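[09:14] KT: can someone run the structure on this one? pasting the chain below
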Amino acid sequence: MSWKNTEERYGSLSISLHWLMLLLIAVTYACIEFRGIFPKDSPGRALIKDMHFMLGLTVFVLVWLRLALRLFGPTPRIEPKPSGWQMLLAHLMHWGLYALMIGMPIAGWMILSAADKPVPFYGFELPPLIGANDDLAEEIEGWHALGGTIGYWLIGLHAIAGLYHHYVVRDNSLLRILPKR
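[09:31] RB: done, structure tokens below
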């Protein structure tokens, strides 16, 4: 299998990035959902929150490669071709997911910046994006939490759509992004 996308199928690089980023996003969500198993201000809670930040920023770095592959390479055809409204919904869903993968890490970075906290990234500390402002940090955190909830819905609908196309419509939508066996 080629690393580049073709008219028939996504390339190994796109497929690998898709599934790697799904895993990263799932672990990012898990980190923030399970932070409560550790007491406040404990080393375990700090570690799991740092992992949430770093994995979110990793998604932010990788999404640009995915976008480049999408913008500069072919998108495999769906056979049989879906209706126009289904294609419109698919494009809106994909761009919503891209907005999530870009916007959520930036919001997290802004929260830490406004809270005057370090922004950890695998042993490095990233510079703040904005100045310290506790009220702004709290407001952005509210938007970040809402984005997280919207993300659950987008990811869930994306998965359901893939399964619907595979098992009900019986087109090649899902097969195009699955690793070849």
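[09:33] KT: thanks! The chain has one domain: 12-169.
[09:34] RB: yep, looked fine to me
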